[in-house]
């Protein structure tokens, strides 16, 4: 049961709710403490000031009563102080300098037997003011506000005694209780509003996250058809949903390519292997006559070599995808690479009865990248152009430098026009058009894919056009 509850309250929703509730409670507690502290200090200061003013008024009345040279009857002073006490709801104590209480407006006290502490009298005598919440050393059962002021003689320097104003704290306590009730009620309302708002906003944030988590589990199972809603939001959640959909699209395309790759390679491997196995079995079981064995052994040899080329090309692709040709920052003369390709292709071009139109400047053109990989690109493109060029026509291999800081290499031939819908597929793995399947018996459909892979590793692009029998491949290289 405990594990179930822990799992229930460990979600992002409850984490957010606990954090928000804690922050609201902490804020209310700090605001309440600050409010009560400031208001208490202010109220106490106001009360002290009020008692001090009243005590000073009574001190003036008590001057002649305490001055032995000008005696005033105690009944007259008591009548005045009681009048002041009734008007202001404050009791007064008139004391001598040694703390003996001579008169008191509080009938519950026996003035003749009361004596205030030396510390209280000392503060009045030395500082001219005593202010404290106290029970007067047990005189009162509960603490009260007490303010004491000295009674000065006519010369203003002789201290004749002291007057203490004593006020109950009931009114202040009542005010604090009212404040406390109002504050608690306001805090509950604020907490409930914060809880409701946090609940709505948190659920609005968590809902897409939960859906993404569910979609991720489906992706792990191989289902890439799930797409996230944008929820009509342009914030981080909306951006995350859009990124999630782009990721799903990429994964779906990758999965589709993977399946196509497996299907294509299965087909490409199946054909030569079936041929090899069939003719081998025919020779072994005597189905093929001895006089025809050499012919079929030659077919087996050709298919074995084609199978070897296919495997080698696949390994080349894997190695190319793991390389970073721009990391070393090398540079080379692309013109020299183009001339070297022409020399290596001379026999194939001659066997096809083709001419070559080369537009390669004598001056070097330095470009960034891997020399061997770019040479492979030029070789594959020129070999592809020679393979499908019409007999007796000319191949074009040239280079030009543009103002955008790029060098553009162009390979062109004259042959059959490639349909427009076939152009985007030329650089896919194992793709061969119907025309090429009938003419290209030795190809494995990886030459142009290798070209694209190498150029993507160099962060360059290649374009192909085919109109009126003229097919042109053009790719870019960054100048050094």
SSE layout and pairing:
Layout (H helix, E strand, L loop, with lengths): L1 H7 L3 H55 L7 H15 L2 E6 L4 E4 L13 H10 L2 E5 L9 E9 L6 E9 L2 H51 L15 H49 L8 H29 L9 E3 H11 L1 H6 L3 E5 L6 E3 L2 H18 L5 E8 L4 E9 L19 H6 L7 H11 L4 E6 L2 E9 L2
Parallel strand pairs: 7-9
Antiparallel strand pairs: 1-2, 1-5, 3-4, 4-5, 6-8, 9-10, 10-12, 11-12
Protein traits:
Heat Shock Protein 90; Helix Hairpins; five-stranded mixed β-sheet; rod-shaped; 12 strands; alpha+beta; 12 helices; 480 residues; single chain; Beta-Lactamase; five-stranded antiparallel β-sheet
Question: What do you see in this structure?
Answer:
It is a single chain. This protein is an alpha+beta fold and 480 residues long. The chain has 3 domains: 162 residues, PAS domain (Beta-Lactamase, 2-Layer Sandwich); 99 residues, Signal transduction histidine kinase, dimerisation/phosphotransfer (DHp) domain (Helix Hairpins); 148 residues, Heat Shock Protein 90 (2-Layer Sandwich). It contains 12 helices and 12 strands. The strands form 3 sheets. The chain has a 5-stranded antiparallel sheet with strand order 2-1-5-4-3, with helices on both faces. It has a 5-stranded mixed sheet with strand order 7-9-10-12-11, covered by helices on one side. A hairpin with a 4-residue loop joins strand 9 and strand 10. Helix 2 runs antiparallel to helix 5 and helix 6 packs antiparallel against helix 7. The N terminus is likely disordered.
């Amino acid at each position: 049961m405990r594990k179930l509850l822990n799992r229930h309250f460990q979600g992002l929703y409850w984490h957010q709710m606990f954090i928000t509730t804690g922050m609201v409670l902490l804020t209310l507690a700090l605001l309440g403490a600050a409010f009560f502290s400031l208001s208490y200090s202010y109220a106490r200061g106001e009360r002290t000031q009020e008692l001090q003013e009243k005590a000073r008024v009574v001190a003036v009345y008590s001057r002649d009563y305490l001055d032995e040279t000008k005696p005033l009857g105690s009944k007259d002073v008591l009548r005045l102080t009681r009048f002041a006490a009734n008007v202001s709801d404050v009791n007064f104590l008139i004391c001598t300098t040694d703390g003996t209480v001579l008169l008191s407006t509080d009938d519950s006290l026996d003035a003749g037997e009361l004596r205030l502490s030396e510390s209280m009298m000392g503060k009045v005598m030395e500082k001219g003011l005593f202010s404290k919440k106290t029970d007067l050393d047990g005189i009162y059962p509960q603490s009260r506000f007490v303010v004491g002021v000295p009674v000065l003689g006519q010369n203003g320097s002789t201290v004749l005694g002291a007057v203490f104003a004593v006020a109950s704290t009931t009114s202040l306590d009542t005010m604090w209780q009212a404040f406390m009730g109002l504050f608690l009620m306001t805090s509950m309302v604020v907490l409930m509003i914060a809880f409701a708002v946090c609940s709505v906003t948190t659920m609005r944030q968590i809902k897409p996250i939960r859906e993404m988590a569910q979609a991720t589990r489906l992706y792990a199972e191989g289902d890439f058809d799930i797409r996230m809603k944008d929820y009509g939001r342009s914030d981080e959640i909306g951006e995350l949903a859009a990124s999630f959909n782009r990721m799903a699209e990429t994964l779906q395309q990758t999965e589709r390519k993977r399946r196509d790759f497996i299907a294509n390679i299965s087909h490409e491997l199946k054909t030569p292997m079936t041929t090899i196995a069939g003719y081998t079995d025919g020779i072994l079981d005597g189905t093929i006559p001895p006089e025809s064995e050499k012919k079929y052994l030659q077919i087996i040899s050709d298919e074995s070599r084609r199978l070897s080329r296919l495997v080698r090309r696949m390994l080349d692709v894997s190695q190319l995808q793991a390389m970073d040709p721009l990391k070393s920052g090398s540079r080379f003369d692309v013109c020299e690479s183009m001339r070297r390709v022409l020399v290596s292709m001379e026999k194939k071009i001659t066997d096809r009865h083709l001419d070559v139109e080369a537009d390669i400047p004598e001056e070097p053109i330095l470009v960034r990248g891997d020399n061997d990989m770019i040479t492979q690109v030029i070789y594959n493109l020129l070999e592809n152009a020679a393979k499908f060029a019409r007999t007796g026509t000319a191949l074009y291999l040239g280079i030009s430098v543009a103002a955008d800081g790029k060098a553009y290499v162009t390979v062109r031939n004259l042959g059959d026009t490639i349909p427009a819908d076939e152009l985007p597929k030329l650089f896919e793995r194992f793709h061969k058009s119907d025309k090429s399947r009938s003419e290209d018996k030795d190809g494995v459909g990886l030459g142009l894919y290798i070209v694209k892979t190498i150029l993507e590793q160099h962060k360059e692009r290649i374009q192909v056009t085919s109109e009126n029998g003229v097919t042109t491949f053009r790719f870019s290289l960054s100048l050094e």
